[in-house]
Each structure stands twice: as structure tokens, then as C-alpha cells.
Write a structure and sequence with these properties.
- The structure is a homodimer.
- Chain A is of the alpha/beta class.
- The first copy, chain A, has 2 domains: about 10-195, Alpha/beta knot, CATH 3.40.1280; about 205-265, Orthogonal Bundle (Helicase, Ruva Protein, domain 3).
- Helix content of chain A is about 45%, strand content about 10%.
- Chain A is built from 10 helices and 7 strands.
- Chain A has helices at about 25-35, 70-75, 80-85, 95, 120-130, 150-155, 175-185, 205-220, 230-245, 245-265; strands at about 15-20, 40-45, 90, 100-105, 115-120, 135-140, 160.
- Chain A has a 7-stranded parallel β-sheet with strand order 3-2-1-6-4-7-5.
- In chain A, helix 1 links the parallel strand 1 and strand 2 (about 40-45).
- In chain A, helix 8 (about 205-220) runs parallel beside helix 10.
- Chain A is elongated and about 95 Å long.
- The interface of A and B includes residues 7, 175 and 195 of A.
Amino acid sequence: MNKPPVIPKYLQHIRVVLCRPSHPANIGAAARAMKTMGLTRLYLVAPQLIATPMTPNPPQYNPQQSFSLPEESYTLASGAVDVLEQATIVNTLPEALHDTVISCALTSRRRELSVPLQTPRQGVSEILATAKSCQECAIVFGNERFGLSIEESMNCNRLITINGNPDYFSLNLAQAVQVLTYEIFSQIDFSMEHLQEKTNMVTHKEIDGLMGHFADVMQKVGFFERRNSERLLRRLRRLFDRNGVEREEIDILRGFLKTVTYRINKN
Amino acid sequence: MNKPPVIPKYLQHIRVVLCRPSHPANIGAAARAMKTMGLTRLYLVAPQLIATPMTPNPPQYNPQQSFSLPEESYTLASGAVDVLEQATIVNTLPEALHDTVISCALTSRRRELSVPLQTPRQGVSEILATAKSCQECAIVFGNERFGLSIEESMNCNRLITINGNPDYFSLNLAQAVQVLTYEIFSQIDFSMEHLQEKTNMVTHKEIDGLMGHFADVMQKVGFFERRNSERLLRRLRRLFDRNGVEREEIDILRGFLKTVTYRINKN
């Protein structure tokens, strides 16, 4: 069994930015979704519920003060707590983006702006190309209720929207993060070889053997009377050629054909 | 503004099968995920928590009895309650699959079977091709904790796995449904034209005009002294050609250039 493939290092150039998220649970869920898809760099812009020793009202984040998110974030993060602990917290979106070359704002389909709109498939393709050349990229998600403000969107140089049912579209923040991070991982060249045995491919000669065997037995049992044997065999062969019959399957079929022959000869 | 595009009718040939789900909340969430991505056909195989008037223990589903799922399913389904109400309930997986030509079992990466393993991208490509020719397809999800049994998987003729971080993979049933339904919709040819204005593309001549204007002003201000003007202008032009400069942007630049000229002439 081969070793499992390694997550490409260039994924570290992709950051997920949650801009003014309201619900601690979503921050935790986002961390989990990210880690599941090999991403580790989380940025939080003015998360509404930073608890500090000073005040219950969300203050300006002071990098000198230690911070901690509400307990719920850590609980929901489950095994992805490390992503939370390493998260970068900033007060404004430009701070989260200033070393990035591409920043993709996630927008709902209902927003109609004149900046070109990409699907996640399109946007992520560009993101990965950029990350592979070691340049920083960001995917930016807005507040659960209000999304990104127009001004926040303008900080980004790309717009991505997740397409769906125009009459009913229910995707919350954590789900949107899940979809984007899934799309990212799906575009990585990630071999699945470690998960399955290489199937034993059979040779042309082995299929010849099988077809020859079919021909014999079909002849013997009278299947070819008033039929075009050549055409039938050619047509049947396509099944085995097209689907890549396996050696074990040939063995089963030929074993069966052999038994039929034996049975007929007995009569 | 164009009309929003219509969900293709052939999506009705794709069913989502939840096999022995334990948590009513997941059934509701799955319904929401489905409807968000234009799918409406939900099959439930022996959902553990069917409430019937007869018994609190999950009984054999009796089609003659009216059934209802636990309240939580309907609550979580939110605006997708219609999907629940139209769901088909059966006792066994073969019943859910017997008119399908393709059935894709969702499996975790940890399961190593010799049936070829597809990514969602690969599996969905085949599903859509099949649905487009009006043949029935199913995507089958197993129990939240135990997944599908080996026997259940064998009822399916395809295996799909969602790739991710080999060291940490946390995707629950509802999220897996979300990912697969997203993948389905993402492969539909769904125009986004209704969401944005067609940008006004500018003509070659208009860019000529802009470059000519730059040339004049750059010459006037002495920018070309000891520089290769032709090369610089050609190089700058690539910015406008490559990114498709818009008329409004040309107007701004040329207005600026005009002002520079005016200012210089004043001196």
C-alpha cells in the first residue's frame, strides 16, 4: 500500500478571511472546514464577540492584549482548535489583505455589481495558480446576516458567487466556507492511489481467449443457428474491452463456459 | 436585465438516498441542501426515527400507514419542507435503487475497496450525462456513524469519496450532501448573465486614442528623455489590452492627461 499523499505546501498561501462574523459557532465550524481541506490560515476581521478582560462590548482589537474567542468557537472547532489558536485577528479588512495579490469576496447571487463575477470553480483555479507561485491569496466571507458591505467588497479584486436554485438558496457562512474549501482541495492533483489496489488489467490475448471460448460454446449449444456469429461475438467483445474486464471475471466466465461444455458432453 | 436562468429539468432524474440516517436534523438539513442546489427527490431508507402511531421503536415502514418524520426534521428543513413531504420512504436500499442505472455510494477515504473510486467531480460528470438522457441516478449516503455497510455499498455500482486532509477529515452527513449537491449544480451550464451588466468593451481605436494621448503627454512632460518611448508605450498598452479596459476608465485617464496638458501649457 502506498503512503498517503501529502497536502501541497502551497496551500499555506491561501487564507480564509471571516469579516465581522457574529456567531462564535461559525468561526469554529469554519476552522474545521478549513482543516478538513488542508487550509490553516484563518483571519478574523473585528469578530463581534471577542472577549477581552476589558469590556463586554467588542473593542478595537489590541494586539498587545491576549485574546480569546468565546468558548463556543473552540467547542465547534473540535479537532481544528489549532487553526483557531493560530488565527490572525485584525480590526479592518485592508489589514487582512495587504500582502495578498488576489482577494476574492464571496457574494450572494442577489448582489449585482459590475465587477466580473466568477464561480468558485473559476475563482479557485486562479487562486491555486497564484498560490503555487508562492503569492498570497484570500477568500473573504462577510457577516452572516449582512454579508460584506459595498466598501468591504471593494477591497477585494475578485468576486465569487456560489450558484444554485434561483428560487431557494439557503447556505450559511459555515457551509459557504465548506464549499469553497472543498472546491480548493478538489482542484489539487491529489492521487487516490493509496486507497485502492491497482486493478489487474488483462491483455488482448486473454480477451481473445475468452471470446474464443464463448465462440466454441455458443457454437456447440446451437446459439449461432440463424444468427450472425461474427457480428455477435464482435458486439459482445465490446463489453469486455470497454469496461476493462478483470482477470477474475474472465476466470469466472470461462469456468462457467467450461462447465457448460462438460454438461453438454455428458448428454 | 435578463430573466434568471431556469433549473434544468433533467435534475429530476437525480435522487439523493439517505440510508438509515439516525438524526432527524440531518434529514432536514439534507432537504435544504438539496433544494438549494435544485434537487427535489429524496429517498429515505429505514430512517431510524420514523414516528408512527403504532410504536416508538422503528418499525418496518408500512406504505399504507401515513408517516411523519420527527418535528426536528421539518424545523431544520426550513423552506425546503416540500422536499421532505415528497420524500419516498422504503425499507431497504435495493427498493430505493431498482429503477436507477447508476448508483453512487459515498464512502469515507478510510474504506479501501477494489471497486474503482471516483472523486465527486468524476462521479457527478457521469451522473449528469445519465440524467440528461432521462435515466435515473442515485447518490447514496450511509448512517452518520457507521456509513454504509459493505452489503449496502455492493448495491451501488459506483463509489465516490470526498478527498481532503488525510490527517484530519471532519465532514458530517449534511455537509457531505451539501458538497455533492454543490458539485452537481456546479457542473450545470448555468449562465450568470442575469446577474451582471455586459461590460462595455472598447474598440481597438479607442485604445489607440488613449495610447496616442499618453504618447503626447509623456513626450510633453519629458518622460521619454533617455527612454525608449516605443517600447514603453507598447508595454503599457498590454495593461489595457489584457484586462479589457472599460470606456469609463479610458475617459478618466484621458481626462487626467488632458488636465496635465492644460496645466503644463499654463506654465
